[in-house]
Amino acid sequence: MDFIHDLWKFMLARKKWWLVPMIVVLLLVAVLLIFAEGSAFGSFIYTLF
Predict the structure, then answer these.
(1) CA 15 from chain center: how many Å?
(2) pTM above the 0.85 mark?
(3) CA-CA distance, 24 to 13, in Å (whole number)?
(4) Other CB atoms closer than 10 Å to residue 23's CB: what's the count?
């Protein structure tokens, strides 16, 4: 959690608001790939990438 706090302080200090959507999308894709690894949905994900 310290990393997230430091990242948030960096974005506030440097006015890097455009990074927020990119970070959120990357995290969502990572979570989707992790949860889809063992399911039938995994084959659909692998065809996309």
Answers:
(1) 20
(2) no
(3) 19
(4) 13
* Owner of token pair 């692998």: 46
Q: What's the CA gap between 7 and 9, in Å, rounded?
A: 5
Q: Which residues of the chain fall short of a pLDDT of 50?
A: none
Largest Cα span, the chain: 43
Task: Please state, in angstroms and rounded to a whole number, the distance separating the CA atoms of residues 19 and 15.
Answer: 9
Name 42's Cβ contacts closer than 8 Å, sequence gap at least 6: 36
Q: Cβ neighbours of residue 45 under 8 Å, at least 6 residues apart?
A: 32, 33, 36
Residue-range domain boundaries for the chain: 2-48
